[in-house]
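User: Here's a chain of 177 residues. Predict its fold as tokens.
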Amino acid sequence: MQVFLLASALLSTVAYAQKTSAGYDKNATFSNYKTFAFDKSGARNPLVNEMIVAAVKRELTSRGLTQVDDNPDLRVVYLAASGFDLQVASVPFYTVLNPAYSGLVSGATSTTWDVTTGTLVIDLFDIKTERTVFRGTARDVLQRAPSADMVADAKLVSKPINNGIAKIFKKYPVHGK
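Assistant: Prediction complete.
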């Protein structure tokens, strides 16, 4: 009986691994980017939205960028797929198989890809060239559809969001301090 209880306790605490991926435009000179600004919010829950903004800001400022209100070098755009699967446009530099969507993104042949529920997508858009220069995804970040309790929802996803964003930005071409 004790063996059964121990085995069931171990099995019930197993969590599936979060999958992240990131890609960037190899022709972009990331050391030239000095400032960034956020686009409109990309999460329905304002608490989750603040959490995402804070984590991305932490990662970018640790790499020497400064958040500004006007005339940024980069615009941060993100989507949090918490309810329904979404489609987003592909970017030409991003040609790797990504577990967060079904299919292979290829800028020359494909215009959109499916983002599965529970995925966070972060794009950095170069204002001058009008191109996405960095895209990161974290799958299994948003562990359930939104409920009526926004505080409980935010608490549930706090650690996965922060860990996922940190993993994404490890692949950013300029390393943090």
